[in-house]
Structure formats: C-alpha cells, structure tokens
Amino acid sequence: MKVVIFGASGMVGQGALRECLLDPDVGSVVTVGRSPLPAADPKLRHVVHADFGDLSPIAAELSDADACFYCMGVTSAGLTEAEYTPVTHDYALEAARVVGGTFVYVSGEGADAESKTMWARVKGRTENEVLGLDRPAFVVRPGFIQPRHGITSRTRIYRYIYSWSSWLLPLLRKVAPKFVTSTDQLGRAMVALAKGAQAARVLRSDEINRLAS
Questions:
Q1: Do 142 and 134 contact (CB within 8 A), yes or no?
Q2: How far apart are CA 174 and CA 88, in angstroms?
Q3: Residue 87 carries which DSSP code?
Q4: CB-count burial class (<10 Å; 0-12, 13-18, 19+) for 86
Q5: pTM of the full predicted structure?
Q6: Angle at which helices 183-194 and 11-22 pack, to 10 degrees?
Q7: Is 67:25 a contact under the CB 8 Å cutoff?
Q8: Nearest Cα to Cα of residue 169 among 205, 118, 208
Q9: Which domain holds residue 153?
Q10: Spatial contact of 16 and 30, defined as CB atoms under 8 Å apart
C-alpha cells in the first residue's frame, strides 16, 4: 500500500508518518513539504515542493497512491479568513484533486460550516467538500491530542499547553473520552481507514481511539 502524507513535519503528520512506517501493510510512503524531512527510512520518499496550490508538477510522483492523509494545518491566531483559508481549504482540495485513493482530512473538534468562529467555519466548509468527493473520504476531528514517542508541536503555544496539561490527561480520558486522543492513536486510525476499515465518515476522538485499537 502506498500512502501520501501532507504535513508530515507537524505534530499530527509526524504521528501519521510513524504509524505508516511501522505498519507492514504500508510498503511506500511519500511525504510532501517545502523543505527536506530529517526522517530516513527505506519505505520513505520525500518530495520538496513550494506551491501547494498547484501540485501538477509533482503529480507523477504522487500517482498510484492507495491513500492520502492531509495533516497540514496552521493556527488561526492573528490570521484573517483569507489568510487561513489556503492551507486549511485550498491546499487540501488540491491534494484531493491530484492524489488518488482514500482521502483522510484532519479537521478539529468543533468544525462547523455554519459557525460564527472563523477557523471552525473554514474547516467545516472543507469537511463538506471532502465528504462530497466521489471516492472514499473521511474526516477526523481530534480534540486534545497527546503527543507521544518524542513527537512535539511546531507551534510554541501548543507545546506549552501540552506540557502544562499533561498531568490532566488521565482525568480527561475518563471524563471526556470524546475529546482526547494521541498522535499514535490518530496515526493508527488513519492507517486503518486507508486499509478499508468500516467507520463513520466523520470520526471524533473516541471513534478514532476505537479504530486505532
């Protein structure tokens, strides 16, 4: 099985990449990014590309994929809707246009196309378009994501939040299981979807964890 990952240098993408490399059913992983990826593995090939709004120049390297994981994301803090939309919406749909196979879009808890909150509205609109694709397509909506196996967020404020709240995780998993998952569980769930696992088309954290197990 061949998997293409966008955003493999981010926290969620690192988790997805790790689980793909560990899974014996995944024979090839292609990651796409603007700069080289430090990870090295016989199954891994990294493609450096600058314009995510036009993937046509690298389409041949992304062909014959069995699945595409869109893990790219950016914090909405300080951004206008016009600034937030390209990474969250436009690039995701371009990835879906070029890469075949099962498409998995990483959204977030609270996404809603009718929301008055900008990030939730943009993600919700993207979800609707992804789910309207004429192919197997899924949306994963993690809430709080626990980074594991040395994985860290590239966003400073997120690193602080994860560090400060780590002691709360056992309690959160008990009282709010629909809102807590981890990088490895999220990655395993995405691989399971790529393999054809039966699941709802929109998965919250508890469903992600169930699929991962």
A1: no
A2: 31
A3: I
A4: middle
A5: 0.89
A6: 60
A7: no
A8: 205
A9: 2-212
A10: no
Strand pairing partners for 182?
146
The reported pLDDT for the residue numbered 161 is 52
- Lookup: tokens for 115: 């929301």
Question: How many Å apart are CA 22 and CA 127, to the nearest integer?
Answer: 28
CA distances from residue 153 to 8, 34, 75, 163 in whole angstroms, order as listed: 11, 17, 11, 11
pLDDT 10s digits, 17-76: 999 999 999 999 999 999 888 778 999 999 999 999 999 999 999 989 999 999 999 989
Judged by phi (left if over 0) then psi (alpha if -120 to 50, else beta), residue 74 lies in beta
Beta strand pairing call for 2-6 and 28-33: parallel
Q: 4: number of CA atoms within 13 Å, CB side?
A: 27
Contact 179, 109 (CB under 8 A): yes
Q: Are 81 and 73 in contact (CB under 8 A)?
A: no
DSSP letter (8 states) at residue 165: H
Query: Looking at the 3D structure of the chain, how many domains does it have?
Result: 1
Token pair listed for 109: 């808890």
Q: What is the CATH number of the domain that holds 121?
A: 3.40.50.720
User: Residue 25 half-sphere exposure, CB side, CA atoms within 13 Å?
Assistant: 10
Distance CA 47, CA 146 (A): 28
Share of the chain above pLDDT 70, in %: 86
Overall size of the chain counted in residues = 213
Cα(178)–Cα(185) distance, integer angstroms: 13
